[in-house]
Amino acid sequence: MRLVQPDSVADATSALGNGSRALAGGTELVPLLRSKLVEADTLVDVRAVVPRGVQGTTIGAGTTLAELEVAPEIPAVLRESCSLAASPQLRSMGTIGGNLLQATRCWYWRLRYPCYLHGGDVCHARQGAHREHAIFGNERCASAHPSDPAAALLALGATVRTDRRSFPIADLYRLPTDDDRDVTALEPGELILELEVPQPEASTYVKAMGRNRFSFALVGVAAVRNDGETRLALAGVAPVPWLLHGPDELDRATPLPGTAYKVDLARPLVRRALEAVA
Ligand SMILES: Cc1cc2nc3c(=O)[nH]c(=O)nc-3n(C[C@H](O)[C@H](O)[C@H](O)COP(=O)(O)OP(=O)(O)OC[C@H]3O[C@@H](n4cnc5c(N)ncnc54)[C@H](O)[C@@H]3O)c2cc1C
Ligand code: SF4
Questions:
Q1: Which residues surround ligand 2 with Cβ inside 6 Å?
Q2: Ligand in closest contact with the CA of 96
Q3: Cα-based distances in Å from 122 to 35, 128, 146
Q4: For residue 159, what is the DSSP state?
Q5: Measuring from each residue's beta carbon to the nearest atom of ligand 1, which residues come in under 6 Å?
Q6: DSSP string of 116-135, one letter each residue
Q7: DSSP assignment letter at 173
Q8: Closest-lying ligand to the alpha carbon of 89?
Q9: Is 56:181 a contact under the CB 8 Å cutoff?
Q10: pLDDT value for 212
């Protein structure tokens, strides 16, 4: 395997594609390479070219979660979602750009079962063990999106800027379809450079985990209030970060037998988040 270290965005993007992958902190990519879930003949180290740090309302995609959790100028919801993610070691290596593009933690997918998300025609989790899985958007793939900051950025209505376009973060994610099993909508070789994050009046992130620390969200709730309106977005409940159109949408959840408890878990979390930003 080759490692290239470009010193401009143009050089980085021209080195991407055709069997190469962008490498940032490597906390996600390296384990995926090791378990052969991702194949690459070239790694393109993008750390020198993807912006890092916070400038006003702009966050460089190369900023680590550890830097964001102590950045006083960013909205509380994003700070809190970063501080509740992973472990201190992972947060000091892992970048926000890499976090948004992390793959599902579904154990069938990680163990390379030929499931729907891998291009097959069956979701093994539906019949098998699925305690950590989805309660929304789960007709084909019942995986639960693992990113806490993605829910925060979705509630904030952040904008993603790449080397070729800008779009709302909601458009970064898509439910897998028969034609395309990907859950993100980046073009091949496209690099996330920055996030534009509006400053809300009030915001918070609350998270239920299997243990107090260093655990993926069973349910994470981001709440953001602006101009008298509150936006809610959830982590750990659907194959993509999920915009919740009010607490009543939980009545229309489609849990699997083993995930029904997540609906009951989400109700008080949503209530608590709404109270915190009221
Ligand atoms: C044990 C463990 C526990 C974790 N717990 C949590 C948790 O509770 N909550 C949570 O939210 N996350 C959690 N994570 C995820 C962790 O936060 C991510 O692994 C990390 O943020 C990824 O960032 P990275 O820079 O290391 O990405 P990398 O591993 O370098 O890259 C990840 C992916 O993103 C691509 N990529 C990276 N940067 C860019 C870019 N700028 N443009 C385009 N593509 C890019 C890479 O090609 C790769 O496909 C956990 C991870 C582990 C291993
Ligand atoms: S939940 Fe998704 S990733 Fe997991 S087995 Fe089902 S199709 Fe595969």
A1: 104, 106, 108-109, 115-117, 123-125, 133, 141-143
A2: 1
A3: 22, 11, 21
A4: E
A5: 21-29, 46, 50, 61, 65, 85-86, 90, 93-95, 97-99, 101-102, 146-149, 191-192, 216
A6: GGGT-S--HHHHS--TT--S
A7: B
A8: 1
A9: no
A10: 84
Please report the pLDDT score of residue 17 as a whole number. 80
CA-based nearest residue to 31, from 127, 114, 98, 126: 98
What element of type H or E holds 220?
strand 217-226
Model confidence pLDDT, tens digit, residues 20-48: 999 999 999 999 999 999 999 999 999 99
Q: Are strands 242-244 and 42-45 parallel, antiparallel or unpaired?
A: unpaired
Q: What CA–CA distances, in Å, run from 161 to 17, 61, 158, 194? A: 19, 9, 10, 5
Locate 21 and state its tokens.
Answer: 């992958």
Task: Determine if residue 46 is left, alpha or beta; phi over 0 gives left, psi from -120 to 50 gives alpha, anything else beta.
Answer: alpha
Distances (CA, A) of 62 to 22, 98, 99, 138, 168: 12, 8, 10, 31, 19
Q: Would you state the structure tokens that stand for residue 192, as one six-digit string?
A: 């996330």
Rounded to whole angstroms, how far apart are CA atoms 140 and 123?
7
Parts of the chain with a pLDDT under 70: none
First to last CA, the chain: 52
pTM of the model: 0.98
Sheet arrangement for strand 166-168: 54-55, 58-60, 192-196, 159-162, 166-168
CA 189 to each of CA 19, 20, 75, 196, 237: distance values in angstroms, whole numbers, following the listed order: 10, 9, 30, 21, 29
Q: Which of 229, 222, 143 is CA-nearest to residue 182? A: 143
SS3 call for 274:
helix
The confidence score (pLDDT) of residue 12 equals: 97
